[in-house]
Amino acid sequence: MRNPRARRLVVFSGVFFAALVLGLAYTVMQPAEYRATARLEIVPPSAASAPAENPPSATNGPDTRGPAPRGFKSFLTEVQVLTSRPLVEQAVGRLAKSGDLPRDFGSDPVDAAQRMLSTEAIEGTEVVQLRAEGPQRQFLARLVNTLTGVYQEHLASAYQQSTGTGGDQLRETVRALEQKVAAKRQEVEAFRSSNDIVSAERDENQLLSAAKGLATALNEAKGKLAAAEGQLRAARNGGAAGQALVAAKDNPTIANLEQRASQLREQLHDMQQRFTPQYLDLDPAIKATRARLDNLEQQIRAERANGQRAAIAEAEGKVTGAREAVEQLQQQINENKRAVQTFMASFGEYKAMQEDLTHLEQLQRAASDRLAKTESSESETAPHVKILEAASVPQLPWRPLYARDAGISLGAATVLGFFGVFLVEFFSRSQTQPAGVAPQPWWPVTDGREAVASASRPLLAAENARLAPPDPEPRELADAEIAALMRATNDDGHLLLTGLLSGLSAEEIVALAWDQIDLDAGAVQVSGESTRTLPLNDPLRNLIAARRMSQPQAEGEPQADGRLLRGPSGDPLSLDDVRSQVMYAAYDAGLDGPDEVTPRALRHTYLVYLLRQGIRFADIGRIVGRLPPQELAAYMRYAPSQPRLPLEEVDLLLPALRDMAG
Question: What's the whole-model pTM score?
């Protein structure tokens, strides 16, 4: 067929109508089945006084979720009894006598009726649905209602038989348990008296209490012995190492000698500050002072040696006394061990007899409780079956659902029709060559090198962006961290850190010379890329003034062209020296992440401090120098949204530096 559309229509129609006819024929040929349902509330004897804690949720089968209360098990049992063969056989017999049993019901009507029946427990209740399914709709309702009546009679008869013998059995059990309890109690009392057992509590028996006290005393004595031996070892080790075992405050003689020696040392130190060593060696008074100091030191050593010997002797005495106490207690325990073992054997047997007596008493109480409940609640625990809804003759078939099955047949026929068209088109498709990409007049014509370059340009840009990540933001230091840095560094470090936290960069501090500093005016003429006049705050001014006083002078004046900071060899400091000095201070101060504390981080901390006060961006350069536009834009996020303040209203001194100045 040359017309593809007509071919598809023919194939689809043929497959569709063939599948639809077959599906509808199968649907119509299915016989109708009906369902009759009754609802029953079953309260078995064991569940009347103890409601089920886990209501049933299974249908015609045991519960596999684990152990269940007694009431729950009784309910499931009654559900199984409801459709058991003996009851179904009675119901079928009644229907046969009344003439309601169909004639074409088979050779075994009981088995056929049992296969028609099913039950379903309603979850959370004691209600069960009894169903019968089959083609005889009149017979289904009669079968369900007849079986319900048979089950009611069976439940009442079984309860009457069980209650007749259950009470007598419980009474006999209670009497037997009472006799056993009385006999066991007499046996336990006789055993206790013959073995001199005061009580079942261990501590109330004199022998065990004494043994426990000796064991406790032995443990305490061993602890004291270990402590005394440790003190003796410490005293001997300290004496061998030359350590003072007796503190000066505990020995008035040593304290007095050390005080006099300290005074003499202070006198000698003052004289050494005022006179030269040659003069000191010639002065007789100084020689006498030194002799007195040597004599005092010899007396101190002698007193300490005496104190060490006395401490060791005292520790040895404690060890000897503690060891004798341990030996004496151990001897007493060994003497009482045999008597304690004999008593413990009798005591263990007494405890076992007590447990047996307790178990018998529990059994006796439990049996008495069951008997009392049985006698007082026989009327309340009587089982009953309440018919919530009797079975009625069904009017519509339960299955099959002809409309649903017809719709399924229609959908399946449609799918098969499209699938048939797909198969026909698949096997009749001719092989064609793939069409090439036709050039378009608006495409630019480029040679191979330009194409490669244009294609690789985005990749190179992305690779460069990946390999060159932005610099991380420096760390901002807290006031406590700044104070710790100041405490951990030396004089040069104080000057470096204060300069970095006052607006100077590391390069400017290294290049700072004495001729740029005017202490009287309180300003520094900063040269370089960011020329400016920086006002000196009090901490920085005091440090520079102290540095001026400590500098070597020529004719009463400091060097006019010298650098402010120099290394130990007299050479000017380098940037690496500044970085090292800051890192040393961070490590010595014990800060977290000391490698992050750099000159840049200190300068960043000062910049953020100024911006958070609301300083005008136009005035920042007057304090910290010129900033690149990109860096200045990055710092804008620290500025508050409130109006900017002029430089005169901004506090230029960090709180940590203010505390240091104070």
Answer: 0.33
